[in-house]
Amino acid sequence: MKENYVIEAEGLTKKFGDFTATNHITFKVHEGEIFGFLGANGAGKTTAMRMLCGLSRPSEGRATVAGYDVYRQAEEVKKHIGYMSQKFSLYDDLTVAENLRLFGGIYGMKRKLINEKTDRLLAELGFTSKKNAMVKSLPLGWKQKLAFSLAIFHDPKIVFLDEPTGGVDPVTRRQFWELIYQASDRGITVFVTTHYMDEAEYCDRVSIMVDGCIKALDSPRNLKKQFGVDSMYDVFLTLARTAQRSSD
Amino acid sequence: MKVFASFVRKEFKHIERDTRTLVILFAMPIILIVLFGFAITTEVKDIRYTVLDMSHDQYTQRLAERFAANRYFIYKGEVSNRQQAMAKFNHGDVDMVIVFGGNFAQELGHCTGGSIQLLLDGSEPNQAATRAGYAQQVIADFAQELQQSSATGQQCNIVPVTHLLYNPQAISAYNFVPGIIGLILMLVCCMMTAIAIVREKESGSMEVLLASPLKAMTIILAKLVPYFVISFADLVIILLLSRYMLGMPFAGNLPAFIGISLIYIIVCLSLGLMISCLCSSQLAAMLISLIMVIPCIYFSGMAFPIESMPTTFQHVSTVMPARWYVSVVRKLMVQGVAVKYVIEETLILAFSAAVLLSIALASFKKRL
Fold this sequence. Notes:
Chain A is α/β, with parallel strands linked by helices. Chain A has helices at residues 45-52, 74-79, 96-106, 111-125, 140-151, 170-185, 197-202, 220-227, 232-240; strands spanning 5-16, 19-30, 34-39, 60-65, 68-69, 81-84, 158-162, 189-194, 205-210, 213-218.
């Protein structure tokens, strides 16, 4: 059964001086699962995610991602993951095709494969006419869809999404989640942080972080049952009220 | 290697599409050269002068004629006393007053030297010094001629002779071109590099790149390549302009000059890297780079001669890499001296390059 887990974290901790951003978190993520990683601002979500992506070294504890240790085999981890950050979607001054070619190139994909996949991807998204358009001329929703497609362009085992749908309307968010489901159907594990509780409902399982610790972890349905409430919003509120840290 | 190439291509595209920056990068050296070459000149011309002759003998007459014949001087009439001279000065009618002492001819005869006083406007000390220099040159020539024509061959010093080395015409282009080279390379390598790296940090793309299998070193090197190319192109532009537009010959060893320029470029790139580690916004990067760029203007002698600075500042200038580089450029380009005379500067630059580059790379790794 153990092979089924693509992310395993055990007592993962990150300290910045006296401040413990992430405090001994332990969890496992199944292969092909959509795992929601929830928490208020400053709860330690981004820090935890950065450690899992090999961007930041854990102070204590260990974690494996796609079977590689995030501390000792960060380079291997990076080859098998995709990452989409909340701030950056794509290079504004490059065209859609150039962005895809660049990231394909970074992951060592062959030129021919990049071209094939670019055409297929743009056809699927209905973006073919925008192939040579500058990214800055596209609406935010499109950029985010493209950024997600870019993050899974090299067929990673796991994709990490850091608040991917910030600032877009509910319709576009819904469309974005269609893409996430498609990726999940292809066997890509999705690890997503979000603020939107409706999005939490779309996840297979969610964890909720408060003050650097994971306070709850289960499927949305079980969590609602456990806390005796009707929505993930209420689950989140119940837990978030216990927070000591101010959310900046 | 292919990964590196695709990343370098991206960097070139960023620059290529940022038309405004691109224009600045290539237009700046041209504009600076044209500005300093033609418009802003520190060269002194058209010195308006008046004569106060208290001797009225044949020698003062002849010397006055010399001044009148010189194309740098413009005769503004004679005055008969000091009050008149001062009045002309105060009205800004003249830049210089030549005062001949009462017994000029006799003094000259005794070879104690005829007494001449040059009155100059000290509110512009650099210009005044240059004007005095010109006047002394005219007087010295005259004295020498007198000496040769006199039968006895006696020595006749009138005033201490100052001779301008290397740049006898005091052409200001010779003075500012080295400074401009130092400045442009600093701007392009240091400031543009810092901004380019910080831009990726600011937009968050750096994080995405670091979450990819790309090595931090690859990202940095790929970022440096375009600016290296551009700064070299700028260097060539400046050299060609100064040769063919300003008619300034390249006097010294060109390969050595290019080699030392490369060392200086590495110094600037390392500084840019260090700044990019310190800053998280493009604005901050720009401001901190200016701290590196301004000494370039100050300590290169481009605007202010180092020699006339307070000693403290002269000491401060020794830690500015730009100062040493500009000194090399001046020696190799203008004076045309042998390479062995620039060894000290070269060693200092090479040492700074090694130290700065290792600090920059170490701090860059640590930050990420």
